[in-house]
Design goal:
Elements (H helix, E strand, L loop, with lengths): L3 H18 L5 E7 L18 H8 L2 E7 L4 H10 L25 H7 L3 E7 L17 E5 L21 E4 L2 E4 L4 H18 L4 E6 L12 H8 L14 H27 L6 E7 L21 H4 E2 L1 E4 L8 E8 L3 H8 L16 H4 L11 E4 L12 E4 L3 E5 L15 E4 L15 H19 L11 E3 L6 E4 L17 E6 L3 E13 L2 E7 L2 E7 L3 E11 L2 E11 L2 E4 L2 E6 L1
Parallel strand pairs: 1-7, 1-8, 2-11, 3-4, 3-7, 16-18
Antiparallel strand pairs: 2-9, 2-10, 4-5, 5-6, 8-10, 12-13, 13-14, 14-15, 17-25, 18-23, 19-22, 19-25, 20-21, 20-23, 23-24
């Protein structure tokens, strides 16, 4: 029964509070951009990029100066929405089936929805494209989203042709053709959602997650691109030979985000909602590339501060003083408990959160605020490897094991590094040899953390299975975003999807490729079912009119053979008949 009972219990405990203070419950808008680093804002010192609206939001609210996220996106998104480290949620990577979140996780959207909030997401979800892991399965009643990690990635419809302008999106899981630039489209939909909630007298949780400024960079707002193309960008190119044209394109996307934040704030003011709406602005990880990151070094995927520090601004005029700042360390895991506290919604009984309520810091006080240790780790692969690409951060000290994100196993002989980050924010003076006691203490902290998160559930790091044949989702779309690459696979050119059929049923099956595949033998396997197809001519589409699959766990694969060459299907759509 998943966690329905838990949510009902939480709601029951909160009814008295809601009855007394429903009018004081804030609306919530959470904006999280994609690959916008700490230094990609005027207020954080960028000498070129113009972000006046986000800067004004920051100055009108509170700033957490040491706010941390994971080095890549799906782990951040899982931690943000659950208040738990991503390794508790089965999210360990960003693709190959390891960015799907365990359906039994209780999300911020689910708890707020049970408490009467209207809940909507507009942009990037990246925690599962299929039932029961979609945004609409995890608490969002309104969803305008893209598939997978972004437009132009393997789960994007082939016919979208990598477009950011007039993109193909999914409204409550149904494909729809949007008009306009993607970021503008997402903010437009969010403003419409806010208006609908206001008409219905409901507080709202609006989660705005544009895919900008994530790559690809070929389709950006043209006028803003010309603006930054004409600027001298030498001050923000952090390595010789960096591509100024790419940075101009990224900055065009980021100023477009800023313009939309300005539209949002003006809209809230016009609707007389601004004072009692809590607005957060943050990013999911550091910049994808070496560019200005403020007083630190590093980039996306790295556990240096440039890869894991995010701007964090909270604007709430009714409760938070303009210009308030705090330097206590905080992280994505703190967002859910903080927003629940702000909304006077209790944490569901029995739910273990890793994060803390940050309201005491945001309200200008920190008495009885004990030091803490934040642990952040991410790397490619099927299962986490102890100490691989990880960091432990306390208020003063930072342990770093910079083994790199891209490898499934760490290279040998990479030493641990220890930094006094208060004295050395650029993380240049390694104190590991000078402070062996601190080094060992933080290594012990990490070991205890890893053992704890690894024991969250039986077979903790097994990927969730996609459920097919359900009345909740009679069509299932499969792409390389969610396939598992078997030991015999050819570097991701083929894979298998882990499915669970609720019942025995017949399906129509459509197979797609971006380019025609040559004549040859096509084999579909799903558990005990084997279905061959002989292709007598080159084609980019094959339809199997009827395929009966049994109930239970099924590992589905499609292999196209031509001589010694093996290739999987790019997209597979199963529709229950």
């Amino acid at each position: 029964m998943r966690h329905t009972l838990t949510l009902l219990v939480a709601l029951a405990f909160g009814l008295a509070t809601f009855g007394r203070a429903a009018d004081q419950r804030p609306n919530i808008v959470l904006i999280m951009t994609d690959d916008q680093g700490y230094g990609d804002l005027g207020i954080t010192g960028n000498p070129v990029l113009e972000t006046p609206h986000i800067d004004a939001l920051a100055r009108g609210g509170a700033t957490l100066k040491n706010f941390y996220v994971s080095p890549v996106c799906s782990p951040t998104r899982a931690s943000l929405l659950t208040g738990r480290y991503s390794y508790r949620t089965r999210v360990v990577d960003t693709f190959k089936g390891r960015s799907m979140m365990e359906p039994d996780e209780v999300t911020l959207a689910e708890v707020l929805r049970a408490a009467g909030y209207a809940t909507g997401i507009f942009g990037k979800w990246h925690l599962g494209d299929n039932y029961p892991m979609r945004a609409t399965d995890q608490g969002f009643e309104e969803a305008l989203t893209l598939r997978g990690g972004g437009l132009g990635q393997p789960s994007d419809p082939i016919e979208n042709n990598r477009r950011y302008t007039d993109p193909i999106l999914f409204h409550n899981n149904r494909q729809t053709q949007a008009k306009g630039y993607c970021t503008d489209v997402f903010f437009d939909a969010a403003l419409g959602f806010i208006d609908a909630a206001q008409r219905n007298g409901r507080p709202f949780f609006t989660y705005i997650t544009p895919n900008a400024p994530h790559s690809p960079f070929h389709d950006v707002p043209p006028e803003l691109y010309e603006k930054y193309k004409a600027k001298d960008l030498s001050a923000v190119l952090m390595k010789p030979g960096n591509d100024a044209d790419t940075v101009a394109r990224i900055y065009a996307m980021e100023e477009n985000i800023d313009q939309n934040v300005g539209r949002l704030m003006a809209h809230l003011k016009e609707r007389r909602l601004l004072a009692h709406t809590l607005v957060i602005f943050m990013s999911d990880n550091g910049p994808d590339g070496f560019r200005f990151v403020g007083p630190m070094r590093g980039r996306k995927q790295e556990v240096l501060d440039g890869g894991i520090r995010s701007p964090f601004f909270l604007h709430w005029p009714a409760r938070v003083a303009a210009g308030a700042t705090n330097d206590r360390i905080a992280a994505h895991i703190d967002v859910m408990p903080t927003l629940l506290a702000a909304a006077a919604v209790p944490v569901p009984a029995g739910l273990k959160l890793d994060g803390r309520n940050l309201l005491p810091l945001l309200f200008g006080g920190e008495r009885d605020w004990p030091d803490r240790a934040l642990v952040l780790q991410s790397h490619r692969g099927d299962r986490p490897v102890p100490t691989h690409n990880m960091t432990v951060r306390t208020q003063r000290w930072k342990l770093v094991h910079p083994t790199g994100f891209g490898r499934e196993t760490p290279p040998p002989d990479v030493p641990f590094e220890l930094y006094d980050v208060l004295a050395d924010p650029l993380e240049r003076t390694n104190l590991a040899a000078r402070e062996p006691g601190i080094l060992q203490q933080l290594r012990d902290t990490y070991a205890a953390w890893f053992a704890d998160v690894s024991a969250t559930r039986p077979d903790n790091f097994a990927p969730p299975r996609i459920v097919i044949g359900s009345d909740r989702a009679t069509t299932t779309f499969l792409s390389p975003q969610e396939w598992r690459v078997p030991a015999t696979g050819d570097n991701g050119r083929e894979g298998e999807w882990l499915l669970r059929a609720e019942r025995a049923a017949a399906y129509s099956v459509e197979l797609r490729w971006p380019k025609p595949v040559s004549p040859g033998t096509l084999e579909l396997k799903a558990g005990p079912v084997w279905h061959p197809v002989e292709l007598t001519a080159a084609t980019d589409r094959v339809v199997i009119e009827r395929l009966t699959l049994p109930a239970g766990d099924l590992d589905l694969s499609v292999t196209h053979r031509q001589g010694d060459t093996r290739t999987g299907a790019y997209h597979v759509t199963l529709t229950r008949l």
